[in-house]
Design goal:
The protein contains 20 helices and 23 strands. It is of the alpha+beta class. The protein has a 7-stranded mixed β-sheet, with helices on one face. A 7-stranded mixed β-sheet has the order 10-9-8-13-16-14-15, with helices on one face.
């Protein structure tokens, strides 16, 4: 026996109300239809009755409109390929944003009473009336009849064309919060970074003042401090700019701009998993080519904000409005043909893993809450990115993940620049607090807040005594943590645990929650005590430096081979002795080697080379181990390169601890770390001839008699 499928009327409900997540998405689908119709503007009007209740929503445009034939054979045909066909035939020079032919059903999400009026150049004005309440009473889809025809009352003037949809019998609770949320979504359909060369404006209007008092986008943009732009094409960044623009009140620091990248930075790099042996998977860095995934030119813009109270207090705009705006709108959004692709950039949608990575990289990264960004795509050249049927983003296939990796890489480059300026900014405006130490800096901030907010002298004294004691304990364990680097204790993990509790402590201090403050402090002390018990300091003794270098080379020999790095050293011909700790010295030199391996592998130079050189002529009274390579050299100033969480590497490739740990380790051994050029130190002739002098880091240990 054979018989065709029968479709019940419930299918329309599922395709409309159930498939569309919320009212914003439903309205977005209707706005997209206006865009696809070649409109220059789309007006979304919210009409309230005399009692202040939302009575109707209308969506009107000045597009090409629809004829009776189009209504009958296209609009009322669910799943038509009309838009897909239009991909080959643009309307007003535009490619359609939708392809499935079901977006119009999203109006079912909004209300039950739908009236559509449309007029085209080819025909008289037409109407469609839909009563969705009748859908539930219809068993089969053929039983659900829709009233349509030529309109007796004209809604368009003689030479006007377009479409107007009026929705009544609204569903849901249209309270003030929801209305302002929908307003936000509609007014961000166009990117704030768009040049609007393709004129299409979304206008939101109302006969109520429900939308009054919302912040101006220009003021929001001007409140940023750090601005970045990238153009991505194929396998590289073809255009890059970064600007640090201090506000007028920040007159102690100068602006800074970067307008280009080094060659090694231009290429898109991402991590891929490679099986080198059966069951053994390693991550390797490879160049990423977006053309391979049918993703064309991408324009990426981002503004980064600063919320630290020492700086934020100097911002000369209404701060609550800015905070509210960022809370609702921060993040990186995606636009295709200048129309937003939901749900990217919505609260809770961490599609670039920005917040996730921040949890693993305490202090050195940035959060979505401090970002306002846009990714601009051209639909014609980005067809490799396919939208989900429910309009909530792209299908998560290989093309999507390549797209994510490319944007993440570009963002990392911009954040690296921001971190430099932010560090200098905090050093000037943090009122003398130690900003190089994330925990201590926050602790000092909390102490100042306690002094200001806690009025009861007894409580204030008790809390401050706790905090001062904890500060001393942290400083002690910090030194131990530096020494522990060689035995695998994660300094970043320890600091992250402390910073999480510190953030909670700061929040309680600002709100004056005394009891909560008292409950958090023992947790902080416990974390410090736990790490302190794990640390053992190693003994400083008279050691032949060549023994240390020999062990370092032995420990890392397989890495040199794996990365095809030619290693040179003079350790066999050097008998110099110094006072040092064997374990800590090996750890410090290994941290330098880690950096060198990374950078020589990123360099475009032919032949990867390193030199580990021992000398007692660089600094009198010291034996120096210089680690040199032919990589791209240092971009960061020396004083920044040795600070924690400041790194020239992409944020997912390093935490900025290597040089910091090495420097702190040398201090503990009464030695020095210096970043040099070949003019500052006498190197072997073969190192100079081979060009192994682009990056030189010297560790100087006190010379033994």
């Amino acid at each position: 026996m054979k018989r065709p499928f029968k479709i019940t009327s419930r299918v329309l409900a599922h395709l409309g109300e159930d498939l569309i997540k919320d009212e914003s998405i439903a309205l977005l689908e209707l706005v997209k239809n206006s865009y696809d119709a070649g409109a220059t503007k789309c007006i979304v009007d919210f009409d309230f009755d005399i009692f202040g209740n939302l009575e109707a929503i209308s969506i009107s445009d000045d597009g090409v409109g629809m004829s009776l034939n189009t209504i009958e054979n296209v609009w009322l045909v669910i799943g038509t390929d009309n838009k897909k066909v239009k991909l080959e035939k643009k309307c007003q020079g535009r490619l359609p944003l939708g392809e499935k032919g079901i977006g119009r059903l999203g109006v079912h999400k909004l209300g039950n009473d739908i009236k559509l009026y449309s007029k085209s150049k080819e025909d008289k004005e037409v109407y469609v009336c839909i009563d969705w309440t009748k859908l539930a009473k219809s068993k089969e889809i053929d039983d659900f009849e829709i009233d349509y025809g030529y309109s007796e009352k004209e809604h368009f003037e003689k030479y006007e064309y377009g479409t107007k949809i009026i929705v009544k019998g609204l569903k849901g609770d249209w309270n003030r919060r929801k209305l302002r949320s929908v307003f936000r979504d509609l007014t961000t359909l166009n990117s704030p970074f768009s040049e609007k060369s393709d004129s299409f404006d979304v206008i939101v209007s109302s006969n109520s003042n429900v939308f009054s008092g919302l912040p101006n986008i220009d003021a929001i943009k001007n409140a940023g401090l750090f601005f970045g732009h990238c153009t991505i094409e194929g396998n590289r960044i073809t255009d890059f700019s970064y600007d640090f623009k201090p506000w007028t009140a920040l007159d102690k620091i100068k602006p800074r701009s970067v307008s280009s990248l080094d060659e090694y930075e231009q290429f898109l790099i991402h991590n891929v998993e490679t099986e080198i042996e059966i069951g053994k998977i390693v991550k390797k860095q490879e160049v990423l080519d977006l053309y391979k995934y049918n993703i064309g030119k991408i324009k990426f813009d981002v503004i980064m904000y600063e919320k630290d109270s020492s700086v934020f207090s100097l911002l000369n705009i209404e701060k609550k409005g800015l905070n509210d705006y960022l809370r609702e709108n921060s993040g990186i959004r995606v636009y295709r043909d200048n129309m937003r692709v939901f749900d990217y950039g919505e609260p809770g949608n961490d599609w670039l893993s920005i917040d996730k990575r921040r949890l693993g990289r305490s202090g050195g990264n940035i959060s979505n809450s401090l970002l306002l960004g846009s990714v601009m795509l051209d639909r014609n050249s980005s067809f490799g990115l396919r939208e989900k049927t429910n309009r909530e983003g792209f299908i998560e296939d290989e093309a999507y993940y390549a797209f994510v990796d490319a944007i993440s890489y570009a963002l990392d480059l911009i954040v690296q620049q921001r971190n430099q300026d932010r560090m200098n900014l905090m050093a000037i405006y943090k009122k003398g607090k130690n900003v190089t130490e994330p925990v201590i800096g926050e602790l000092s901030n909390v102490i100042e807040i306690i002094k200001e907010k806690v009025s009861d002298t007894g409580d204030q004294k008790q809390i401050l005594n706790y905090l001062y004691r904890m500060e001393n304990q942290y400083n002690e364990v910090r030194d131990s943590l530096i020494h522990s680097a060689s035995i695998g204790v994660n300094l970043g993990g320890a600091i992250h645990e402390l910073e999480k509790q510190m953030a909670a402590l700061k929040s309680c201090a600002e709100s004056g929650d005394i009891e909560k403050i008292k409950s958090i402090i023992p947790i902080l002390e416990s974390i410090i005590d736990n790490y302190s018990s794990m640390m053992l300091k190693s003994e400083i003794q008279n050691v032949r430096v060549s023994e240390i270098v020999k062990k370092v080379i032995e420990y890392n020999r397989f890495r040199f081979q794996d990365h095809e790095i030619r290693l040179f050293s003079n350790f066999k011909n050097n008998d110099s002795c110094a006072y040092l700790s064997k374990t800590e010295s090996i750890a410090a030199i290994t941290n330098l080697i880690d950096n060198s391996i990374y950078w020589v592998c990123r360099s475009r130079n032919e032949g990867r080379m390193m030199y580990i050189y021992i000398t007692d002529t660089y600094k009198e009274g010291y034996v120096t181990v210089a680690v040199c390579d032919n990589g791209p050299g240092f971009k960061l100033p020396a004083e920044l390169a040795i600070r924690p969480f400041i790194s020239g590497k992409p944020l997912n490739a390093g935490m900025g601890f290597g040089l910091y740990i090495a420097n702190e380790t040398m201090k503990q051994m009464k030695g020095y770390l210096n970043i040099l050029s070949d003019e500052n130190i006498e190197l072997p002739e073969n190192a100079i001839q081979k060009g192994i002098v682009n990056a030189i880091v010297a560790l100087s240990f006190p010379k033994a008699d």
